[in-house]
Write a structure and sequence with these properties.
The complex is a heterodimer. By secondary structure, chain A is of the alpha+beta class. Helix content of chain A is 19%, strand content 26%. Chain A has a single domain, classed as 2-Layer Sandwich (Alpha-Beta Plaits). Helices cover 53% and strands 9% of the residues of chain B. The chains are: A alpha+beta, B alpha+beta.
Chain lengths: 74, 406
Amino acid sequence: MARKLRIRVDHNVCVGNAMCETFAPHVFQLNANRQSEAVNPEGDTEEKILEAAENCPVSAIFVEDTETGERLFP
Amino acid sequence: MITAAINDDLFTREVTNDPYTYFGRLREEDPVHWNELYDLWVITRHDDLVWLTRHHELFSSEVLKRDPRPPYPQVDAADLGLYEYVRDFSSDQFIQHDRPEHLEMRKVIHGYFTPRSMEAWRPMVQSAITDLLDAAEEKGHMDVMADFATPLPVLVIAQMMGVPLADRPYIRELAKKLLAGGQGAPDRLRTQTEGMRGMLEYLSPLVAERIDNPGDDFVSVVASGEKRGIFTRHQVLVNCSLLLLAGHETTINLLCNGTLAFIRHPEQWALFKQDPAGWAKRATEECLRYDPPVKSIQRIAAQNVELRDKVLHKDDRLRWFISSANRDPEVFTHPETFDITRDPNPHVSFGSGVHHCLGATLARLEGQEAFKALAERFPSLHVETEELEYQPSMTFRSLKALPVAW
């Protein structure tokens, strides 16, 4: 079974480039301010989520394993 | 009317040399200003800029394709035919597209510029800086523009694109011709089209070769877009040309304007020198905010849009000014103060939204390493002239020269 992820988007940093929405569209969505929100951490595969984090041009996305607390990105 | 006294000529020496006073006044008095002279909305507040950039569906980036008007300021009537060439060339740049095409095009090249992959270039940037500053040290003085700020990013982008290093002066010459397009001279279309033709001619054999034998260089990455049916060959060439140009002109300005800001604020320079490695990131952000490399970006209204008490009509031109947004007192405390400890620093020097600067991470990295090295090696840096001149451009904040000694 896939492990549960905790995903955080730093809104002091997010510029609404929306690449995360492209790579993991069921996890990330832009809010009314056009900044990214992780609306459903289980919406896409871990691979897609990490790809979304990697492609954030301002490194605003943080991903960790909910149970172990292991940091998966960055 | 309060704005009656505002002179709409954006190419005067006064506005060129000090955009902060002019656009700062507009921000306070008429933040959504109709510029009669150029048929242009001038947007100057930080919150408006952020809102506009994040509503790309309302403000089209297809500026050249959608705007039937002749270029501004006026060009020689005999040259107007050349504008069609400029339009065809520039319209193929990925930044001159809206979604969905923009996203498909950007995805071809976006992965090359992620923060993690750019970090791999840091040692190469450091070593290039060492070489350039070694050469300067022997002379005892330098023009930061010609001897440091220009060769560094040209070298980096040339390495990334896998173009022969010996071609760098020629590439810079072509780039200078392309830049004439934004500088207001009535005969600029001749220079600009010469640069565009030169770039296509220079890049054609290189691209053809990389299509057949792709490597891990950036030209091969752009060319892969042709194989996948996303770019035409002309688009591959034009976008390679764009990235060659954008990959260095903006960084030149960051390095020159930042160095000047340090020299003009000795107490900040002293603070920076105490721990260059520790302050490099924040200081670079403050250089980006205080005297940004890019002054303004243009869009065209895709539909009627209400903004404050004005209505921008479909197909109206608008330009937002980073130079004034970065000094908006609603967002920054003591906005006119150069303060390398500023944090957070939500400047908009790379824009925002889906068109946020592709090369932002690279520019930051080059700035951090350059300022750090200058502080470590030339702690008594000072300017050697009273008179500094800027290029008359609405887009770029470019010094003509910055002679310094130590």
